[in-house]
What we know:
CATH architecture of the largest domain: 3-Layer(aba) Sandwich
Distance between the termini: 8 Å
Radius of gyration: 21 Å
Order of helices and strands: EHEHHEHHEEHHEHEHEHEHEHEHEHEHHH
Structural class: alpha/beta
CATH topology of the largest domain: Rossmann fold
Mean pLDDT: 94
Number of helices: 17
Amino acid sequence: MTGHIGINLLWMIPGVVGGSEEYSVRTVGALLDRRLDDLEVTVFALESFRDAHPEICERVDVVTLDLSGNRAVRLAAESTWLAAQARRLELDLVHHVGGRCPAIRSVPAVVTVHDLQPLVIPENFGMVKSRYLSYAIPRSVKAARTVIAPSEYVRGELLRQFQLDPDRVVAVSAGYEVPRLPSPDDPRVPDTVRELLAAEARFFVYPAVTHPHKKHETVLRAFAQLRDDGGDAWLVLTGGAGKAASEVQQLVADLDIGDRVRHLGRIDREVLDLLIARAEALVFPSEFEGFGIPILEAMALGCPVIAADATAVPEVVGSAGILVPPGDIGAWARVMGDRLAGTPPRAEAAAAGREQAARFAWERSGERLELVYRKALG
């Protein structure tokens, strides 16, 4: 079977959407790794995509549109410019990776829904965006030939919420790859990180955009309690500024822990891997995840994981990490203290994590995506 597939990434402003960007780009890369001669792929993205992801642009045709960050303009472009491009290139199928299909489509669609947070916790979004998504997501999953979810958890929620035919909803999970870690002397490593590593300081790391559902408050309050109980450690936060950025900054000041908290913002992928590999644990208090790629990557690096027992997180962690009740500050502080005390032993936690991570692979993700496309074409 032959076909020409379009992949719609116009929704993605590089560096803004966090885990959804990581999942989307790496899944596309895994598909391209399969070197399919009978399936032609064209990616549609914003012009800024070229600088952010040259590894994709070097391997596949990328048609870009130079737009501002205005969401309304990008939505309009999907129903006009993208529809026209699909006709011009005689596409057989368009995969809309951003969670909803455009209102106007010129060819059949596949849609990836990363999670149902806009429907479950609408207060985390602006009023206009929340109302739009509460309409667009149900319309999209009913219109698409196939709906892709990043985890079995999200797949189950889609089936429960929309009563879809189970054959139309497919889980395509994330994968992992063990990176080559840079030296602490690498010029890409910020001075703050270099000093932390040189001092052999003990630290926890949380890589997440400061969105409300990421629950930075939980780990900050637990860390403050840990410090009051005599725990000698640092807390390193990475990731861009989200809707709750000012609240997070204020809480650090209110808890008087600024001398032991470092917020590095967005850092190079290799530097983050180095931090995770050296951390006492990856802490992940997020209470709403469609998958949780940082958890998988931490386990692959042999870093112990402490995570909230919520949504898709237990599916990723399995029995390899410590799951903590969401928002239970005392429990989080105790588990972090246990980690500093070496319970369970790091070697034991690292071995369990690597074994769990091996259950996921980008190669299998690419294979699953290929099967989705072939079925949708048929």
